[in-house]
Records
---
Amino acid sequence: MDDLKCTEKLQDFIHFYDQASIEQADLTRRLELWMNHYNFPHVPPGYKKYQLAREILEYGWSKYPFVYDKIKYFELTPSYWQRRLQEAKEILSVDDPVAIHLLFFVAAFETDPFILKENEERYMICFPTELPAIDFRLTQELARTIHAQTSGMAPSHTRTLAQLIFQEGVSLHTAHQLLDEEKRNEAFPFFHNDGCTREPNRIIMNILPHLNRRDYEALYSFTNGKGASGFEKEANYTGWNLVQYLLDQGVPLNELVSIQAEDVDVFVERTLYSILNSAYTPQPQE
C-alpha cells in the first residue's frame, strides 16, 4: 500500500513574512528573521549554506504580496494527491508501493521542485507553492518519483543529463495524459516562450555531446539556464520530444519506466540519433 504524507512550512513562512513586513526589515534583518522563524532546511546540491535563502529573499520579496493569500490559505489535500499518485501508477503500470513525503514550502518563484531521499524507503518531494500550474507540475513530480523507484535512477541533481532528459520526458507525458486540456495548457506555453520549438533538431545536435555530464552546472544550464543552443529548458523540451517519438513508434510509457538506470544513457543517445536520422532522411513520395 502506498504511503503518502503531506506537511508544510507555509505557516512558518507567513510568521517570518509578517514580522519582516512589520519591521520593514532590510535584507540582513530579513535573513535573520528567516533563520529564526522559517529556516527551510533542505538545500539542493550545488547550493552553499544560506545561498537559497538569500536568493529567495532577494528575488522573491517584492512578489510575495501578490501570492500572500495563496500561501496563507493553501490546503494540503492529501487525499487528492493520494488519488493522483494512484492514477500515475496506473498509467505507468507500477504495482509496487511508493512512500512519499510531500513537503510544501515557499521559494523565489523560479525555484523548481526537487526530490530527496528522506531515508531508504521514502522520497521527499519539496514543492514551492507559489508556482503556477501546481496540479500539472506536482503530478510530474509524483511521476518522476515513481519512475525513480522503478528504474533505480536518482530523482534529482545527481543524474546524468541523459537521465534527466529521460525522466523529464516520461513525467511530462504522464502528467499530459492524466490532466484535462485546461490544466495541460496552463503548463505548456513555456516551450513556446523559450523558443525551443523553432529549432528542435539543432537543440538535439548540440545537447548530444553533454549527455554523460552530471555536474550541477550542466544540469542547471540545460534546464533553468541557457543551454548549448541558447534557450532555456532545452533538456525538458528534448525529453518531451524523445518520449513523443517513442510513443509514436508504439513504445508505451509503462515500458519506458522499466528501463533500468544503467541502460538509460545509451538508450537516450541512440534514440536521439534516431530522431535526427528520421528528420534528415528523405521521405518516400506518395
---
Amino acid sequence: MSQEMDVIEHLLEIEREASRTLVSAQAQADSQIAAARTKADEQFKKLYSEAVKGIEEKAQLVKKEITDNRQSSLDSYKDSLSSMEMDVEAFNSLLESYISQ
C-alpha cells in the first residue's frame, strides 16, 4: 500500500509541476502578447499620424493652388474691366432710349 501511495504522490507532484509550468507559460505568453499589442499600437499611431500629416499637407497645397488660381482669374478680370474704355455718350443714349419708351 505504501508503494501505491508513493506512486500516487509522485503522480500528484508531476501534475502540480505541470500546472505550475502551464501557469508560467500562460503568464509569459500574456506578457509577450501585451508587448506585441503595445508595439503594434505604437506603429499604427505613427503610421496613422504620418498619413494624416501627408493628407493635410496635400490638402493645403491644393487649397493654395485653388486660391492662387481664383485670385489670378479675378485680377485678370479686373484688369480687363479697367482696360475697357467707357463710352459715356452711348450709355446715356441707351438709358434715354429705355426711359422714353
---
Amino acid sequence: MEVEKYNCLTADNFCVPNYTPNPKHRCIQAYYALNNDVILIGEADPCYIYWLSVTKLDDEAANRQIVDCVLHMEPTLFGHESDVLESTKYSAEQLRSFYSAPVKQAEDIILHLQEAKERCKGLETNGKFIQGLQHDLKVLSYEAASPAAFYRKHKSKITRLQEMKFLHCSDNPQVRDLYEQLDKCCTELYDAYMTEAH
C-alpha cells in the first residue's frame, strides 16, 4: 500500500512558501468528523501544511502508516489548508468546528477521541447540563447594539465554551446540535467584536 496516495496535497494544489517553514514547528493534528472520518494534517507551521488525508477512524493500518510517514518525512510540497481541503468533501469552516487533538503516535488518534467522549459523558451525567447549554445559547444569541461591549461582557463565558470543542464528539445528538450552534455563535460574536474594535 503506497501511503502517499492518501495525501490530498498534490502537484495540483500546492503553493511555494515565501519563506522556509521552521522544521521545529511541524506537528500532526487529527480532526474528528461525525461520520467516523478522521482528517490528519501535517502542519509545517501555522501558515502551511505538508500533508492532509481523510481516512476512517477504524482503518488502523492506514492511519498507522500515515502517522509514521508524516512523522519521518522531509516535506517537499507545501500548501494552504483551505486550498487542499477543496479536493475533499470538507470545507475550512467545517474543519474549524471539528474537535481536534495533536498526534504524536498512531494510537493517539483513537485515544484522544475516547478521552473526548469520556469528558462528554462526565458532563452529561449532570441532568442540568443540557439546560445550561440552552441557557448559554439564549444569552449569547441576544442582538446587542454594541458587539464589542457585548463580547467583553461575556468574554469568560465565550472562552469557556470555545474550550469545550470535545462536545462535538458527544454521542448525544442534542448536545452536539446545541454545541454546534454555540460554537458558531461564539465565532460570530468574536468576528463582530473584531470588526467593531478595528
---
Amino acid sequence: MSRPVLITLIKAMFLILIVSVAFVLLRSTSGVSAINNPKQLFDDVAYGQTALRRAQQTRVWVTRINQVLRQQAAEIEPHLLDPTSGCDPVTPLCVLAAASARSGIDIIYTEQRPPQLPSEILWLGGFVDPSSGEVFDRLGRVYKRTAKGRTAMALYKHQ
C-alpha cells in the first residue's frame, strides 16, 4: 500500500471516530426529554411488574399498578403501619427511591417472604431494606412488625 493511500485511510478512520463520538454525545443529550417525562422513561415496565430503573442519576423502583395490585394492596392494609403512606393504589405508576438510609446500600425487591416477616402476615412481594431490616409492600408502605420509625419508602419526586 502506498503512503498517500495509507494516510487517506487513517484520515477516514479518524473522521469515523469523530463522527461516532459526536453521535454518542448528541444522542445522550437528546434523551433528556425522556428523562423529564416519566411516562416515556418507564414505558417498558409492564402492568403488574416491578423493575429497577435509573432516573436523573437516581436508582428507583417502578411498579406499574394494575387492578390485581390494587386489590392486593387493599388485602394487606391491616398489616401495614400506615396504609395511606407510600404510593396511592389508584395511580397507574408507583416510583420509589431505591436508596436506603445507609449510603451505597439499595433497598431490594423480592417475591420471597423475608424471614423477619411473620408467616401469618400476607406477603405478595415487596421491598426489604438491608440496612434496617424493614419490609415494605410494592407501594412502599412499611409493615407493622418490621417498622423502626419510618412510615414508608421515600417516594421519588420526578421533576
